[in-house]
Every structure is written in C-alpha cells, then in structure tokens.
Design goal:
The chain is mostly helical. It has helices at residues 3-26, 31-36, 43-70, 75-102, 109-116, 121-154, 166-215, 218-229, 242-249, 259-267, 274-305, 316-324, 327-365, 371-392, 400-424, 430-449, 465-482; strands spanning 455-456, 459-460. It is found in: Cell inner membrane; Cell membrane.
Length: 495
C-alpha cells in the first residue's frame, strides 16, 4: 500500500472515530438520544444520512458492475429508485415524523406499529423485530462483502492477520471501525458520519466518470468502442422484456419499507424541515446515481480500449481508481467506497440493535431498565448483529447486488404496504397489520427459495418484491375489512 493511499485512508478512519467520540459526549445520555439523536437532525444531515445509509457499496460496486456487464438497460434500476425515493419523502416522511412523536414518542418502527395498533401490539412488535434482525443480518453482510472485495482488489498484498486472506482482513477492519463509532456515539454519530460520507461519495462519483471519459478518448471514441463490442450496449430498451422492466423499476417500491432509511424521517428536527430535506436528498441521489452509471459505462470503454482484464465487474470502481489517479487521490476514492459501505453498515447495525433493545430486551426481559442500561444493552446488540453479519459475509464469492436485492425486497414487501397504509388509512386494523407483515416477508422468502426470482414459468425471473408487495397490500386490505375494529388511529390533539 503506497504512502498516499495510507495517508488518505488513515485520515478518513480517524475522522470517523473522532465524530463517534464527539457524538458520545453530546448525545448518548438516554435511549432517545442514542437511538434517534434526540430528534434534532437538520434537513441537510437528515437528507444525506438517509441517502448514504441507503446506497451502500451497491452504489459504487453493484450498480457500476451491472452496467459494465449489461449496458444501459440496467439504468432502469436507478430510475425506479429515484421515483420511489421521491414518493417516500412525500408520502411517508412528514406523516411518520409527526405520528411517531404523537404515539408516545415511539423510538423504533416496531414500537410505533404496536402503539398505532394496540389490539395487536405484542404480535406486531415481536414479528417486526424478528423480520428486521433477519433481513438486516443479510443486508449488513452485503456491505461487509463490498468492504472485503475492496481490500482484496486494491490491497492484495495486505498483511494478513492470523492467517486470514486480504478479503477477510478487509471485512474485519471495515467492521472494526464501524463498531467503534457506532457503539460509542449511537445515532448522532451514525448520522454525522453519514453526512460526511455522503459528501465524499458524491464528490467521488462526479470526479471518477469525468476522468474515465477523458482517458477513454471522449464521447465519440467511447461510443464507437462500445458499439464495436456490443451494438446494443448503449440501448436502454434492447432485450428489455415487460417482466425485466417491472423487476428493475420495482426496486423503487422498497423505499417505503426500509427501516434504516425511514428512521431518518423520525429524527428530523420538525415536519416543517421535511421539504428542504427532500430537495437536498433528491439532488444528492440523482447526481450520485448518474455518476455510478457513468463509472460502469465509461469504465467498460476504458478497459476495452486498454485491454484491461476485469475478473469481477463489481470491482470496476476500484480498478479505475488504481489505474488513473495518483496515490493520494486513489486513497480518497477508496475512502469514498468505504464511506458507502460503512454508512449503510452503521445504520443497519443501529436499527437492528434498537429493535433488539426496545422490542425484545425492554419488552420481555427488563421493563423497568434504566436509560443507562438500555444504552449499554444497545451497544452490546450492535456487536451481536455485527458478528452474525460477518459470518454470513465470510464467502468471498458472494455478490453485493444479489445480497442487497434480497434484503431490499424483504423489507420493502414486509414493511412497505404496512407503513404506507398505517399512516394513511384509518380503517386499517391490527389484524390486517399483522397479516400484511407476515405475508410480505413470507412471500419474499418463498419466492427466493423456489427460484422464481431466477426463472418464472419458463421465462425470466420476477423480482421478489413485486409479488411480496402485492400480497402484503392485499392481506392488509382484506383482513382489515374482515376484522373491523374501533378506529385505532389516534387523532391530533387539535382535532
């Protein structure tokens, strides 16, 4: 590892740890501060924290890798995500911020659901906590896989600790830094580091495609080179079936049910700050996704023109960083990739930990636990979930995009319809909420188990979020109609 790269990465690691210490001194005195930062996030921090915790290593590895292999048809995933994120900010964000505080200052999604539907409080809290922990273990593992691939590709000669490979060393080094600032500083540390990491990611995704395009010879040369390899590489529609299109844009449905994203809505300073946060977040997202598309497309042109072998397409960002930049800038770009990975891992660890703490430990084991005890137990559960995720990520052949897609679909189907309808439909019953939660998660798991995401009725597979979302929505609607209860929706005090 060169001196320039070492300096850049060391500075980045020290900055993350420093933010963790700052947050520990400022906002970890009670569970509301540790789990939601005291609900005092500014619009900018809330927006970039939601964006950075959303995109993960998928933005700099999974998406560019898919575009590198298949061309612009893969950009429909990004388009679907932009649409889904926008409606998430419009429909869910203001309502969730207001209602979670109104329902006895709920600190987690399971707690909010239990207070929104008191007739099924225990069932909702328990089942949703189980779903969160299961899918977040897989989701967190995808981030660790990205971290392992980074070190394996960029630093193959890294000193191996205890006989581990560079991939495994990368997993535990990435996880170690994340654990330090997450366990110490809680939600505020995660949100502030997300803000910094989001800025680094966007800057890297502006710099990288521009430099790659210039080095590849410009638009004309790049287009001719890619057309010579695959005449349809730059087509957004060639070979795109209806099922393929729906499976790609359906990624946008996942936004409504991602606990690590929507928890930022709960923590924003006030409902009045939501529009500003939405505008900042959407601008960041569009710029970053456009940059990721550019990395994959122009990266293909550059590697073809220079006869560069790319054994793993998901490492194209790392290969280009090493090929085209001086060590100090390469270190910054690799720090951007680590930022994408670490921002999501830290958010997911904290949300999973908060569910285990508030919806299991406090609910079943220690109802009268002190605030200090809850904070410390929260730190312990962060460590537990991290260990499980590291075990899942141990296989170096795991694909980042594959792991992310399954976890994204699981959350989107289980919680998406549940969150939307609980915030907007007063006729929804507690039994309907439980039915939707179980049906959505079960459908996704069954769909994957049967291989229907790979092949459906002899044709291409259907992304599991589509049947999961539809089944969950229908289950909520039908069961709520069949089990009418007194309106469980608590009106505003002024109403």
């Amino acid at each position: 590892m060169s001196l320039g790269i070492t300096i850049s990465l060391t500075a980045y690691f020290l900055l993350m740890i420093g933010i963790g210490i700052y947050a520990w001194r400022k906002s970890t005195s009670n569970s509301e501060e540790y789990l939601l930062g005291g609900r005092q996030l500014s619009p900018g921090v809330a927006a970039l924290s939601a964006g950075a915790s959303d995109m993960s290593g998928w933005l700099l590895m999974g998406l560019p890798g898919a575009l590198f292999v298949s061309g612009l048809t893969q950009s429909w995933i990004g388009i679907g995500l932009v649409v889904g994120a926008f409606f998430n900010w419009v429909i869910v964000a203001p309502r969730l911020r207001e209602q979670t505080e109104r329902y006895d200052n709920s600190l987690t999604i399971p707690e909010f659901l239990s207070k929104r539907f008191p007739s099924k409080a225990l069932s909702l809290r328990s089942i949703s906590a189980i779903v969160i922990v299961i899918f977040f273990s897989v989701y967190t593992a995808s981030g660790l896989v990205a971290g392992g691939k980074l070190f394996d590709t960029a630093f193959p000669d890294l000193i191996h600790i205890g006989g581990m490979s560079a991939y495994q060393t990368g997993i535990y080094l990435t996880l170690g830094i994340v654990l330090i600032y997450t366990m110490v500083g809680g939600f505020l540390a995660v949100s502030l580091t997300d803000f910094i990491q989001g800025c680094i990611m966007m800057l890297a995704l502006v710099i990288m495609p521009i430099v790659v395009l210039i080095k590849a010879g410009g638009f004309g040369v790049s287009e001719a080179r890619m057309m010579s390899v695959d005449p349809n590489f730059l087509s957004m529609f060639h070979g795109l079936t209806v099922i393929g299109f729906l499976s790609a844009v359906a990624w946008g449905l996942g936004y409504f049910g991602q606990p690590h994203i929507i928890v930022r809505f709960m923590a924003v300073r006030s409902v009045k700050d939501v529009p500003a946060a939405r505008n900042i977040g959407m601008a960041w997202m569009i710029i970053s996704l456009a940059g990721a598309v550019g990395v994959g497309i122009f990266g293909r042109s550059y590697t073809v023109g220079n006869d560069i072998n790319v054994p793993d397409p998901e490492t194209i960002f790392i290969i280009l960083a090493n090929q085209l930049f001086i060590p100090l800038i390469t270190g910054f770009l690799l720090a951007a990739l680590l930022a994408a990975v670490m921002s999501t891992i830290s958010s997911q660890l904290l949300v999973a930990s908060s569910s285990l703490t508030e919806d299991f430990y406090r609910l079943f084991l220690r109802r009268n636990a002190s605030e200090r005890e809850i904070v410390n137990i929260g730190r312990l559960f962060v460590l537990v979930v991290a260990i499980v995720a590291a075990l899942i990520a141990h296989n170096p052949d795991s694909e980042v995009l594959g792991l992310v897609s399954h976890a994204w679909a699981g959350f989107g189907a289980a919680f998406g319809p549940l969150i939307i309808l609980s915030l907007t439909w007063r006729g929804m019953s507690g039994a309907g909420a439980v039915a939707g939660l179980v049906a959505g998660a079960a459908t996704v798991i069954l769909w994957i188990s049967l291989g229907l995401d790979q092949s459906f009725m002899g044709g291409p597979g259907i992304y599991e979020i589509i049947p999961g979302f539809i089944v969950a929505w229908l289950a909520i609607w039908l069961v709520s109609l069949a089990t009418p209860t007194k309106d469980e929706f608590r009106p505003l005090a002024a109403e």
